[in-house]
Automatic annotation (TrEMBL):
Keywords: Disulfide bond, Repeat
PROSITE patterns the UniProt entry points to: PAN
Alphabetical GO biological process terms: proteolysis
Top-rank taxon, per record: Eukaryota
Protein known as: Apple domain-containing protein
Pfam families: PAN_1 (PF00024), PAN_4 (PF14295)
Domain Apple: 41-109, 110-181, 303-374
Taxon lineage: Eukaryota, Sar, Stramenopiles, Oomycota, Saprolegniomycetes
Keyword Repeat: yes
Annotated organism of origin: Thraustotheca clavata
GO CC, any one term: extracellular region
Amino acid sequence: MVLERTNGVSGNATAVVQIINDANNTYMCDSNYTCSLPNACSQQFADTDFLGNDIHSISNQTLGSCCNLCSTTSGCSAYTFNSGVCYLKKFGLNAFTSTGSIAGLTSSTCQTAYMNTVFTGNDLTSLSSQSVAECSQACSIMASCVGFGYDSASQTCYFKSSLVQASSDSVIKTIVLNPLCSIAETLSIPFADGEDEKTLKFTIGNNIEIINPYNLTLNLTSAVSGATIGSLNKLVVNVTHDGGVLSWNSTEPAIEGSLVNLTLLRNGANALAVNATISLVSSANYIFTCDSSTSTCAVPPQCSVQYSGINFPGNDLTEIITESAADCCAQCTAYDGCQAYSFETSTSSCYLKSIAANTGWSSDVISGISASQCITMLPNTDFPNYDIGEEPGFTAAQCEQMCNSDSTCAGYRYVPATMECWPKYFVNNGVSTVDGGYFVLKKLPCLNPSIITITIPAHAMVASFMISLPQDQVYTSPYSLTLSMVSATNQATTADSLILPVLDNGISGHFYFTTTSFVVLSNASSIPIPITRAFGSLGSVAVTVISSPSVLFAQGYFNSGITFADEQLNGVLWMTINPSATLLPPQAISLTISGASNNAWIVSPKQCVVTVYDTRLSWPNAPSNLRQINATGSSVAVAWDPPAFTGGLGVTILSYFDMAIYQQPQFHL
């Protein structure tokens, strides 16, 4: 920060700067005009004492040992030293002149508000007021008022002449006006003859307890030796934390049943530790619980997630008596069709439910679900009655939005074919339907996101945590995990959400060509291509095969597929070919398995080659380079280059020419 002297720099001059900051930090400046927060024993005030708030006194001390004692004594924030005796103080309040005494403060933060604290006695008067600010204004103009206690229950402020004896009170906070630590630093800065600028340096304190940004203000209050103060007489510096910029490290899709390591990166400033709070939501509605102490999220063991004070009215299968909510969950797990339960602690009644729905509050009920997934959508299902109203002509998104905006809506039924929407205020006794409609349950506690807090230590640039993905014994459709940063301390810039795809582990099958090469003739109208499914066979899988370009295909290439049924291990894909109007040399067609649905894996060999030979023959072309070899008697021997063969088969061709004199030549093949 530069203080300039303009419009004449002759002669000596002195500027007086007042230092104020909203966080009540105390800055002390040295002779080089470098200002910083004081250390524990640098704030000492000669001929000053603090009245009251004594912890105890210790004799035979020095000023330095007195300060050290306060720094290491729990609850001590101030001290007074006089004639070898050290008086340790809980608060540095009620400063007064005392010749020979030295008062000291150990904290660089000047506390002016004491929450849930009352100072008894020394009352001046009281005032009914709804505003703490109004009480502060009244105290500031009241003789002998050093602070006040504000009772939020009665909205009354009690003005004090001194603040001596503190005790706890849940409805009162005490405000101190102008304590010794809050006296603004006043700094005199001399300018020599011809000197036109001075530089002030501030080392901003790293106080992570101060969450919100605050202002550091420098006021030019006066100038001596004929100098005057210009119009730019105030500099305000906004002070905030900088925890850096957070981002996710890129990651590949995860595999079901694996342990995924996710990394949080920090760029930029790294002096402060940052706590990043992250929410985790599964598109497949898996329930995760997170442990910030171990930096791990996982699907909890069965019956370990329960919701106190939550009830699921309706959809009862049966009622039994159990000893605990855990026993009630065990009964649900063993009961056919039970997906949820509610345990009434006052009666030990356990209600087994066909579905978790109609979330309500009840102080003596503990509820839970038996599965690791939160069931929210039921295909081909309806829950009759309890309609809020029928809404025709709604899209699925509009139907959901309408239910979300109605606090009484417990779920809705939607039929895509007719675009009919039925929101319900109660869900009970579901029935099967065949019209393609589905039912969506809302406001379930298991839908709440999981939360984990990850710490990036000071000066560190990375932190990681683990997600243990569930492993199902049946095929799992692809789903995703969405990780969003809810908040980050120390004003760190949060990252965008990370969407982590989760793929099946391959138990739906590994697909490959059974044979890697075929030789066929062009008179075959279609060719069987066998494909094998190994490793797993759960679920229906559509396999797609594409070819290299060839004139034997009507579209110029082959692109088709075959669907494997659940547990089907072998399949045959028929490839149709169209004979060419002209003779063709052998055609080598490359086939590739290009896709497999439901996260099935494509493994080697995923390519094969089909060679197609043309079965048609034709006369050879006319011979070339005809030449005489020799003549004997009545015969002449000639030779020529073999003609090019235009048929499709790779056969060996022998051609010759017999010629008799005065006879018609004959060709032989």
